[in-house]
Every structure is written in C-alpha cells, then in structure tokens.
Design brief:
Length: 410
C-alpha cells in the first residue's frame, strides 16, 4: 500500500495478509454489486422507496440473526465461516447474472438478492471482526485496523468506479466480475492458518450466553457511547441510497458519475486510513472522535445543498475522511477491551450498529426522500448528525475525555 514500508511489522504476519487480501477483494465485489443493484433498481422502478428497501432487506437478516451469529463466531472456526459466507455470495452473483442476461430480473428478485446478501453478511461481519485481532499482536492492532480499513477503502474507491463503467456493458457484466472477485477472496480466506489458534470454549447455549454480548457492551459505557454515536450519526447523515437520484436528477449525470459519487467517501477514507496507519491517534481520542463526527455532519449538509458535481465529490470525500477517524477509534475501543472468547458475540452486536447505520440508514434516506424529496432528506440528516454529537457529548462525558485507545477502566 502507498505510504507503507516493506519492513512494516504487519507484513510479517502472513495470516493477516491473507485475511487483508480476502477482505479487500470481497469489499470491492460488494461495492460493484451495490452500484449495479442500485442503478438497475432505479431503472426498473424510478422509486426512492425501492432504493431504501434494498438497504432494509440487507439489514433485516442481520437484526434477526444477531444472537445466533455471535455464538457461531465464538464456537466455530472463524475462517471457515467466512469461506461459507463467500460461497453464498458467489451463488447470489450467479443468480443475478442469469436474471440480468436473460432479461427476466425484476424488483422482487433484486430485493430477494439483497435479503440473501444480508443473511450472508450477518455472519460475515462479526466473524471478520472477531478473527482480525487473532492475526496480529495487540500492540499493533490499531495500526492493523487502520491498514485493514485502508485496503477496504481502496476497494470502495475502485469498486464503485469500476462498477459504474462496466455497467455500460450491462448489469450482467458487473455481476460476472463480482462473482470472480468473490471466488478470489474465497481462495485467500482458505489460506489463513493460525500458528497459535486459541481454544474456542464451547459454552452451553443459554439465554445468558446469548445475551452476553449485549450485557458486555451495556456495562462498558465508553464502548456503548462510541458505537451508538456512529449508529445515530451515520443513520441520520448517510446519503448513499440516494446517490442514483442525485447523479441522475440533481447533478444530471449517468452511471459513471454514480460510480464516482459512491467512490468519493472512500477516497477521503483511504487517505485518512493511510495517515492513521503511519500516525495512530495517541491522545485526545474522545475529542478527536466527536470532532470527526461533527465534520461528517457538516459535509453531509453541504452535499445536500450542492448542485455542482465537483463540490459534491469533495464533500463526500470529506465525509469519508471524517468517518474513518470515528471508525478506527470505535473499532480499537471494541477490540482492545473485549476478550477473545467474547469477540464473536460483541462483534455481532457491533455489526448490528454498523448495519443499522448503513443499510437501515439507506432505508431511512429512501423513506424520508419519498416524503420530502432527496435534497431536504439529506439536509435534515446532516443537521440531525450535528444534534447527535451535541447530545452524546453530554450523555457520555467520559468518552469525550478519553485520552488513549489502549484498554483502560470504564
């Protein structure tokens, strides 16, 4: 990666590098697929509501399966779980290729595909989060998380842009490339070997163990504050689901512009993650996080008001850079303060917060856009994000005063 020396200690951990390559490839495939699905859905229905439903259908399985996936991630081989998730996504890609190429794809099939992807990601996300910390020493985990995010953000830059351009050849062409990328990711994940794999405790399944992740987060207020801040800020401020509307009806551009708009937040996030890999946050972590979320809200607000393509790109890039700061701080707090035997269940709850802020946020954007219009929806969301920052600083004063990311008493 740009800015990383070949001698960096992360490169000495082969299992982590296989994991990193698999995550980057999967993320790129998912981003390409979402561009194709969003444009195809809007082509078929011209409905902001239906764009929002795509997000809701991806989020619903994660919510329904929260307690189950956490236990699965804490009881079984995490790399094998990831492999099964990727196999399921390959099947979804093949179905979308078939429907698009033969011309019988419709609104219901796209929503069914979104549901299937959501179910797969419900297992993938917490398992991925729980596996990562096992692959590097705790001392370099914040840097590993930043580097991991850098790779993912690079894929989010390349994926939407590539998906938008490939879409010119048809949606089936995008889905075919996605299928190939999922297959490559599967190969990387199958190569992960843990030299000192911890023994996974097979606790009996009880109501107490099912709810252990929720209980753990509830009693660590700084962790609760960090992930709930991200939930409500991005839930209100996200505009991803509405980008097809902005690209076509407000900025008067085509699929290529949609790909660039979707990639713009990742461009900012990629640059910031490279910076954080080399210069990790060492003090004033709480204040830095709250400031970053406030910048995210302002950037969202300006994007909603913009009718200039370049200004819109710039604001989306700024929002991505600000969000990346929040993501690295939140992930570091969660992973460093959670014991390995609990990481699956805690990551499952954390994934619900992430999924709610992203997929449920897309539904919220589609719903409010259907009521008020796309521009008012984004403006209200940006203002809502700023309000959340102000409220959370009062609700979680210890979080705002947090100095370091290393584990400390909560």
């Amino acid at each position: 990666m740009t800015g990383m020396k070949a001698s960096h200690p992360l490169f000495a951990h082969r299992a982590f590098m296989h994991f990193w390559c698999g995550r980057v490839t999967t993320t790129m495939a998912n981003q390409m697929m979402m561009v194709a699905v969003a444009w195809q859905m809007y082509d078929l229905t011209h409905s902001a509501w239906d764009l929002g439903l795509v997000g809701l259908f991806q989020f619903a399985p994660a919510l329904a399966l929260t307690l189950v996936v956490g236990h699965v991630a804490d009881r079984f081989d995490r790399s094998r779980i990831l492999a099964l998730c990727l196999a399921a996504q390959i099947v979804v890609a093949l179905a979308l290729i078939w429907g698009s190429f033969d011309g019988w794809i419709n609104r219901e099939m796209i929503l069914l595909a979104a549901l299937a992807l959501g179910a797969s990601k419900a297992f993938q996300m917490p398992t991925q989060q729980a596996l990562g910390p096992l692959l590097v020493p705790a001392a370099i985990l914040p840097q590993a998380l930043a580097f991991n995010s850098a790779g993912a953000q690079f894929a989010i830059i390349a994926g939407p842009a590539a998906g938008g351009f490939i879409y010119v050849a048809g949606a089936h062409a995008v889905y075919a490339v996605c299928g190939a990328l999922f297959l490559a990711a599967l190969g990387f994940i199958l190569r992960i070997r843990l030299d000192h794999a911890p023994v996974m405790a097979r606790q009996p399944v009880t109501l107490k163990t099912l709810l252990a992740g929720i209980d753990f987060i509830w009693h660590r207020k700084q962790v609760l504050g960090a992930i709930s801040l991200d939930l409500f800020a991005v839930l209100l401020g996200g505009a991803t689901a509405l980008l097809p509307i902005f690209a076509r009806d407000i900025l008067h551009c085509g699929p290529w512009a949609l790909g660039l708009l979707r990639a713009a937040p990742a461009i900012g996030a990629f640059g910031m993650s490279i910076w954080l890999t080399r210069r990790p946050i060492e003090r004033n972590a709480g204040k830095v996080m709250f400031s970053a979320v406030a910048v995210y809200g302002v950037a969202t607000l300006v994007f909603g008001l913009s009718t200039n393509f370049l200004l819109s790109l710039a604001m989306l890039a700024l929002s991505g850079a600000a969000d990346m700061i929040s993501v690295v701080i939140r992930q570091s707090l969660v992973q460093l303060e959670t014991p390995n035997e609990m990481r699956g269940r805690v990551s499952a709850v954390n994934s619900i917060f992430i999924g709610a802020s992203n997929q449920l946020g897309e539904f919220e954007s589609g719903l409010t856009a259907a009521w008020w219009g796309a521009v008012p929806s984004v403006i209200v969301g940006g203002l809502g994000t700023l309000a959340v920052v102000a409220v959370w600083m009062r609700l979680f004063p210890a979080l705002s005063q947090r100095q370091k990311l290393q584990a400390e008493a909560t």
